Amino acid sequence: MIETIKxxxxxxxxxxxxxxxxxxxxxxxxxxxxxxxxxxxxxxDGLSHVAFGAMAIAGILQLTxxxxxxxxxxxxxxxxxxxxxxxxxxxxxxxxxxxxVGALAIGYLLLNLFSTSTNLSGDVCSTLFGSTSILTLTKSxxxxxxxxxxxxxxxxxxxxxxxFAVTFxxxxxxxxxxxxxxxxxxxxxxxxxxxxxxxxxxxxLLISALIIFPAMSAMRVFRSFKAVTIFSAVLSVFCALLxxxxxxxxxxxxxxxxxxxxxxAFLVCLLIDKIHGGVK
Amino acid sequence: MALLTCEKLTIxxxxxxxxxxxxxxxxxxxxxxxxxxxxxxxxxxxxxILGLQRPIGGKIExxxxxSQNEIGYLPQQTLVQxxxxxxxxxxxxxxxxxxxxxxxxxxxxxxxxxRKNMERMELMNLSRRCYRELSGGQQQRVLLARALCxxxxxxxxxxxxxxxxxxxxxxxxxxxxxxxxxxxxxIVMVSHDLKAAVEEASHILHAGVSLFFGRTExxxxxxxxxxxxxxxxxxxx
Lengths: 280, 237
What we know:
The structure holds two protein chains of two kinds.
Chain A: H1 2-9, H2 12-30, H3 32-37, H4 41-60, H5 66-87, H6 89-114, H7 120-129, H8 139-158, H9 160-168, H10 170-175, H11 180-202, H12 207-221, H13 225-250, H14 254-276
Helix pairs in contact in A: 2-8, 2-11, 2-12, 2-13, 4-5, 4-6, 4-11, 4-12, 5-6, 5-11, 8-11, 12-13, 12-14, 13-14
Chain B: E1 4-13, E2 16-26, E3 31-35, H1 42-50, E4 57-62, E5 71-74, H2 79-82, H3 88-93, H4 97-100, H5 108-120, H6 136-150, E6 154-158, H7 166-181, E7 186-190, H8 194-200, E8 203-206, E9 212-215, H9 216-221, H10 223-236
Helix pairs in contact in B: 5-6
């Protein structure tokens, strides 16, 4: 098996896939804890559907670089969702559902009406489940991904303490003069960037899994914010690597294989928690 | 000069006033309890003092070198915190966020301050424990230590004994009393517990249709207190 992997490693597209996969897994796990605890999980899910709609439009317009269109649209929607979500809880949820399902429907409709592709359902499937897109990355896409991932990691490290403060207690942070709205905005934008990046790896439907599973697994086993953050990053990278390798050797779809590994890891963490009551 | 002066303050939500023309002063070392019925506007008043919402009219002035973001705030617990993975030390340190300002990381002095306040609240043996696994009283002490990191002068406490059993409640009051008497920290406390309020506080602000502000002794002689205490007594008996 190691021989097979070695052989595959000689292809540049496999190396690209591994680099990009590791970076995306790292980024998406960082904000997972914040997302889960702030009840922002829905925004993540909603945005991934928006990204699908944007991707469909980009495809129809035959843009040379999808990212340049998809990224701004998703970021703008992130900001809008956050603003509506803050007004009232219930209306916020409904607004997210409306935007996300709407984007999904319109995206698919437009693809059906205008697409020039001969394999429409194949295209849709790969956008939703990311079946092959990670293996067909061009060099410039890899670079874009590297730059954006590094930016996400840097922002996270710089604002780690603020993100903690804003996640744990918004009111206290606000009373202390921390600009909570600005940080919420920053978090939403970073989430949008991560989602667009992760679309390449797992497709738009499975992105939430990549963000939420490592965080939930880490929260089962560890008890400090720092440990949870570090462990979820490590676990996410490990699961992504394992998932990509399995899918290369076994010929399974990349995205769903990674998510399956994430689920397995979560079950293991659940088991550890049940047996030991977590690592103290 | 007063630490905090409210002048003809009108407060409420979205233009709808719940309290009108509130004027009072808090001086260094005071222990003020804000009491009143549910919906009387006592939480709104507290949030306005903290700068969490704007007053509709009037003004709030800070004196004695205190600024609005130097108030130590003990909020009520939120749902999010019930399953938050964070250690006591991480939470107490986050009380230094106003001091840190735009600086991304905490300095050695700030970590030292957090340690001192954990010691003060007798949390040293719990510093690496997870917040969500602590008892209600311990959690309140953690949040109090965090508030102490944020202030040298003024603590604002929102129902600090809500949900605690009588024994722990007494401990909590003793702790707050000690901070007020020995360390000279000014206390503003929103409370349901009128009996404890008149025992502990030096001043009372009774929010409601008829408003009272003054020393506790004066309050006890007013009609308002008589009626309120009577009704409260009837409820708990």
